[in-house]
Design brief:
The protein has 75 residues and is α+β, with helices and mostly antiparallel strands. It has one domain. Helix content is 20%, strand content 39%. Strand 1 and strand 2 form a beta hairpin. The chain is elongated.
Length: 75
């Protein structure tokens, strides 16, 4: 499945999808950082069989919107 790119709160994200025996794994990376958030989507649980890509994208974007932002810095 092709990667997905989107923006949230001024940051750009790239999601790489991997098919596994149990479902899908998504690796979400915020551009400019080394950290990756990994999410698993089991087959048959919340995935639209007519549009699995759309379901995966919606789940990843929702996860990013609920993730806390970076900790404030002191100068």
């Amino acid at each position: 499945m092709e990667p997905h790119r989107f923006e949230h709160d001024g940051s750009s994200y790239e999601v790489l999808f991997e098919r596994t025996a149990e479902g899908w794994v998504a690796r979400i990376r915020c551009e400019g950082t080394q950290s990756v958030q990994v999410m698993a989507f089991p087959d048959g649980f919340g995935l639209d069989p007519e549009d699995p890509r759309g379901s995966l994208i919606a789940g990843c974007e929702a996860a990013v919107s609920r993730r806390p932002g970076p900790a404030p810095t002191r100068h």
